[in-house]
C-alpha cells in the first residue's frame, strides 16, 4: 500500500528534487536575478510537505466508494493547502518587512500553482484508473 502511494506521488517528488537541484546549482544565477536561495528552498520544501499531506488526504477520499467523498476531500485538501501557504506567506512578510525578497516570494507563489496542478493531475489519473479497475 505504501509503495503504491509513493509510485503515485512520484511526479511531485521528482519536481521537488529537480527544483531543489536547480536552486542549489543556480545560486549565482538566482543572486543575479535578486532571488534568495534560502527562501526558494524553504518555500519549495513547505510546498512539498503541504502537497504530500493534501495528496494523502485526497487519496483517502478516493478509496471511499462514495464519489462525493472524493470531491469533498480534494476540495478540502486544496483549501488546507491554500490557507497553509497564505499563513506561511503572512508570517514571512511580517517577519522580514524590510528585507522581503519579492522575486523569491513570487516564484514560490508560482510554484504553488505548479504543485497544485500536478497534484490534481495525479489524482484525476488515479480516479480514471480506479474507475477502470472498479
Describe this structure in words.
- The protein is mainly α.
- It has one domain (2-133).
- Helices cover 88% and strands 0% of the residues.
- The chain contains six helices and no strands.
- The protein has helices at residues 2-8, 10-25, 27-33, 37-63, 67-95, 102-133.
- The longest helix has 32 residues, at 102-133.
- The two termini are 17 Å apart.
How many structural domains?
Answer: 1
- Which structural class is indicated by helix and strand composition? mainly alpha
Largest sheet: none
**What level of helicity do the residues show?**
over 70%
The residue ranges in which pLDDT falls below 50 over 5 or more consecutive positions are: none
How would you state the average pLDDT, rounded? 88
The counted number of beta strands is 0
Radius of gyration: 17 Å
Which word captures the global form? elongated
Output the number of helix runs: 6
Please write the string of helix (H) and strand (E) elements.
HHHHHH
**Separation, N- and C-terminal Cα atoms:** 17 Å
Strand fraction band?
Answer: under 5%
Amino acid at each position: 500500500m505504501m509503495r503504491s502511494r509513493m509510485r503515485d506521488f512520484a511526479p511531485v517528488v521528482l519536481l521537488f528534487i529537480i527544483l531543489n537541484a536547480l536552486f542549489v546549482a543556480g545560486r549565482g544565477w538566482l543572486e543575479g536575478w535578486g532571488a534568495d536561495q534560502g527562501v526558494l528552498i524553504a518555500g519549495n520544501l513547505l510546498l512539498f510537505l503541504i502537497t504530500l499531506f493534501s495528496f494523502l488526504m485526497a487519496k483517502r477520499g478516493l478509496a471511499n466508494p462514495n464519489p462525493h467523498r472524493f470531491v469533498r476531500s480534494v476540495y478540502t485538501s486544496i483549501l488546507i493547502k491554500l490557507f497553509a501557504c497564505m499563513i506561511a506567506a503572512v508570517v514571512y512578510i511580517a517577519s522580514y518587512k524590510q528585507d522581503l525578497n519579492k522575486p523569491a516570494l513570487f516564484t514560490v507563489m508560482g510554484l504553488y500553482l505548479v504543485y497544485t496542478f500536478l497534484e490534481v493531475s495525479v489524482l484525476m489519473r488515479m480516479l480514471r484508473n480506479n474507475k477502470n479497475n472498479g
